[in-house]
Amino acid sequence: MSKQINKKEIIITGFGGQGIVLAGKIIGMAAALGDKKESTLVQSYGPESRGGACCAQVIISDNTIQYPYVNMADVLACMSQSAYEKYKGQVKPDGFLLTDKDLVTPDGDMEFFAIPSTRMAEELGRKMIANIIMIGFATSVTGLISENAAKEAVLSSVPKGTEKLNMNAFQKGYDYGLSKLKARRKKATANTGASQ
Questions:
Q1: Which of 82, 111, 135, 154 has the most beta carbons within 10 angstroms of its beta carbon?
Q2: Hey, which bits of 6-152 come out as E strands?
Q3: What span, in angstroms and rounded, lies between the C-alpha atoms of 62 and 148?
């Protein structure tokens, strides 16, 4: 019997200027340096970087990664409606769809987790940290990377002098994700109790 290889494929997408590629870099770095796994990052931009479509593809694996492009994502994090429209068909049926609640309205019947990351970033005083909030959210909801590895990668990737702000942003996203999971478990327990 062959050992199951733990491999996760992630797409983070939105528009240029949202820090999409940095988010991909942080997740890959957390996996490689903090969690001691293999990781790759492939990035792509639309015709113009700021405002155009932007995508980061990250693969995390226990073994050597032969092919760095995502076939079907285990996690799809969308921070714009156009990005969602473009990539929604690339998430596995049992995968995680994460969205910015105010910027993306999913269609269809796939379950998803939404966080108002841009609004939360604005409330913290910097719209630019919405990507860090989304990383915190993705870390708690999906368990792709460990919390400590994610925090270390955020700290080593953000501009000097913004560490406290970015840690606060990560924590807000992380805690929001935990509360979403707790609410979902509570709802599932109530539903199974009702059907017995």
A1: 135
A2: 7-15, 38-45, 53-61, 73-78, 91-100, 113-115
A3: 18
Question: For residue 129, what are its two tokens?
Answer: 């940290």
The amino acid at residue 46 is G
The beta strands (E) that lie in the chain are given as: 7-15, 38-45, 53-61, 73-78, 91-100, 113-115
The Cα 22–Cα 169 span in angstroms is 15
Element (H, E) at 31: none
Size of the chain, expressed as the number of residues it contains:
196
Domains parsed from the chain with CATH numbers:
7-194 (3.40.920.10)
Distance CA 125, CA 145 (A): 27
DSSP 127: G
